[in-house]
Amino acid sequence: MEMNAGKLALPETVREFGFFVDGKWIAAGNRRVIERNSPAHDVPVTRITRCTVDDLNQAVRVARDAFNDRRWSGLSGADRATVLLRAAEGIRARAEELALLETLESGKGISQSRGEVLGAASIYEYAAGAARALHGETFNNLGDNLIGLVIREPIGVVGLITPWNFPFFILSERVPFILASGCTVVAKPSEVTSATTLVMAEILAEAGLPAGVFNVVTGAGSEIGQAMTEHDDIDMLSFTGSTAVGRRALLASAGNFKKLGLELGGKNPQIVFADADLNEAADGVVFGICFNAGQCCVSGSRLIVEKSVAVEFEKLLADKIARVRVGDPLDPNTQVGAIVTSQQNDTILSYIGRGMAEGARLVCGGGALETEKGQFIRPTVFADVRMDMAVAREEIFGPVLTISTFETFEEAIELANDTVYGLAASIWTKNLDKATSAFRRVQAGRVWVNTTIAGGPETPIGGFKQSGHGRETGIYGVEEYTEVKTVHIALGKRDLWV
Ligand code: NAD
C-alpha cells in the first residue's frame, strides 16, 4: 500500500497542545508545560500543558453539568450511535496524523501505530451498535398486581486514566463504551503520550458530541492523576496502568466509594506442550514477547515448555528472534521500536542484569542495541529460570522472555498460576482435551489457544487476581459504566395495610 511506501521524516516543528474542556481548547497560558522527546530520536516532538488541580476540578464540574442536564444521557441510543459512527470516520480521516503522533511519542513502529489507529476506528463502530443494544430486564412473574423492571442507567462522571504503552488503542477500548452508556468523561492520558487523546477530543467534538461530555486534562500522574482518584465528584474511575498505582487508586477511592475499573499488570504464561506445532508456537511466543517491545500488559513473558522439546524449542526461538527487525519506528518495516522512556529502559536493563546475577542462562539478547540516538533493547531470552527469580516473578514490561520447563500437565498449570497476576495466558497444543483442561484451570481473564494477543472489541478484557477489577469492551464494557436500578410498579387496587 502507498502508506507503507517508505520511511517517514521527523517533523521539523514541535506540536503544541492546550487541553480540552467544555468543547473548547484552552491554551497553556502561564501554566508549566511538559516537552516530550521522541524516544527513538532524542528530539522534542510535542509540548503539552501541565494542568493544575484547579483545571481538573473545573473539568469535573463541566462533566457533572453535562451529565446532570441530560444533554447526552437523555439522547436515544440511536443518536449516540450516530456520533460514535461519525467519530470512527473522523479517526479514519486523520489516521496518518494520529499514527505519526503515536509513533513519535511512544516509539512504536509506524506500521503498528497505523494498525492500532484503524483498529480503534472499528471499536467505535462496534460500540455504536452496543449503544443501541444496551437494555435491562423485566419480571413479569411477580403476580398480576406487580411488575418488576431492571433498568440500566449511566453511572455519571467517569474519570479515565490511561498508560503510555497503547495510548490511543487503550483510550479507544474505553471511551466509546463509556459514551455509549451515556456517561460523561474527564480523561487524563499518560504525561509522555498525551497527543492522540487530545486529538480525539477534537474528533469527537467535530462528530457532534455535545460540549462538556468528553474533556481532557493533561499533566503529571502524581498530581492530576492522584487528584482524580481522590475526587469526590467522580462517580467511577477507569484506571489502566501499573498494579502499584492501581493499589493507590483503590485506597483513594474509599473517600466517596467511587466504582473502580482497574486494568493492571501481568506476568503472562505461554504454555507449550510437546504436541504443539512447534514452529507456529515459537512464532507466537516471539510475537508475544516482542510486540510493542514487550511493553504490553498481555505480553507472554513466561514461557513454560515441556521438557522433552525444550532444547529444540529454544533453538527455534533464538533463530526467529535473530530475524526480528528492531530499529527506527519511522521505518514501516520496523517490528520493534524504541523503549518509551529512559527510566523504563533502565528498569529493563536492570532486570536483565538481575537475571544474569540470579544464574539464569542467557540464550540471546542481553542488553541495549547500540544506536546513535534513542533507546532500544535487543529481545532477550533467559533459560533455566526458576520461579523464585525476580525475572520470573516481576512484570519487566520489556522484551525479556524467561523459559522454565515442566514434565507433567499438573506441573505446567502450577507454574502458570504461580503469580500474583491473572491477566492473560496462551496454551499451545494440538490436543483438544489438553487445551480445554488447561484453559479451564489457568487463572487469567483472557486465554488464547494456539495463538496469542488476538481478538476484537466483541469480547471482554480484564484480569483475575492482582491484574484488576471489572471488564472493558464487549457488551460487558458498556454495562460496566452503568448502574442497575430495580423498579416495582404496583397494578390494580392496593390491598390496604391500615
Ligand atoms: P503507571 O501506573 O505508571 O501510569 C498509568 C497512568 O497513571 C498514567 O496516566 C500516569 O500518569 C497515572 N498515574 C501515575 N501516578 C498516579 C497516581 N499516583 N495516581 C493516579 N494516577 C497516576 O503505568 P504506565 O507505566 O503508564 O504503564 C505501564 C503499566 O500499565 C504496566 O504495569 C502494564 O501492565 C499496565 N497496563 C495494563 C493494561 C491492562 O489492560 N491490564 C494495559 C496497559 C498497561
Automatic annotation (TrEMBL):
UniProt keyword terms in alphabetical order: Metal-binding, NADP, Oxidation, Oxidoreductase, Potassium
One GO molecular-function entry: oxidoreductase activity, acting on the aldehyde or oxo group of donors, NAD or NADP as acceptor
Family matches, as PROSITE patterns: ALDEHYDE_DEHYDR_GLU
InterPro entries xrefs: Ald_DH/histidinol_DH (IPR016161), Ald_DH_C (IPR016163), Ald_DH_CS_GLU (IPR029510), Ald_DH_N (IPR016162), Aldehyde_DH_dom (IPR015590)
Record bears the keyword NADP: yes
Pfam family, one: Aldedh
Start and end residues of each Aldehyde dehydrogenase domain: 25-487
Active site: residue positions: 263
Keyword NADP set for record: yes
Family: Belongs to the aldehyde dehydrogenase family.
Annotated protein name in UniProt: Aldehyde dehydrogenase family protein
Organism from which the protein derives: Rhizobium setariae
Highest classification ranks of the organism: Bacteria, Pseudomonadati, Pseudomonadota, Alphaproteobacteria, Hyphomicrobiales
